[in-house]
């Protein structure tokens, strides 16, 4: 259940895979670097939300 929840949440935000893919290009422009950081932030927020929900259910 946890695995499915995290996978589903990742899909709701910007694609984590895309963020990793542009990592090599992030040095080329500040805009790409900003987008990468925003993607990482979204993924971390989703993970924290999933953890909070799990803690509430315990």
Structure description:
α1 packs antiparallel against α3. The chain contains 3 helices and no strands. The protein is rod-shaped and about 45 Å long. It has one domain (2-57). 78% of the residues lie in helices and 0% in strands. With 58 residues, the protein is an all-alpha fold.
Produce a short descriptive summary.
With 58 residues, the chain is mainly alpha-helical. It has one domain. It has 3 helices and no strands.
Name some characteristics of this structure.
mainly alpha, 58 residues
Write the layout of secondary structure elements.
Elements: H1 2-12, H2 16-21, H3 30-57
Helix pairs in contact: 1-3
Q: How big is the Rg? A: 13 Å
Structural class: mainly alpha
Query: How is the biggest beta sheet arranged?
Result: none
Helix content: over 70%
Q: What sequence of helices (H) and strands (E) makes up the elements?
A: HHH
Compute the number of strand runs: 0
Given the C-alpha coordinates, what overall shape results?
rod-shaped
């Amino acid at each position: 259940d946890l695995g499915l929840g995290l996978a589903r949440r990742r899909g709701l935000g910007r694609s984590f895979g895309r963020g990793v893919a542009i990592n090599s290009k992030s040095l080329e422009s500040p805009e790409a670097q900003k987008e990468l950081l925003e993607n990482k932030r979204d993924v971390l927020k989703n993970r924290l939300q999933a953890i909070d929900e799990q803690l509430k259910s315990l």
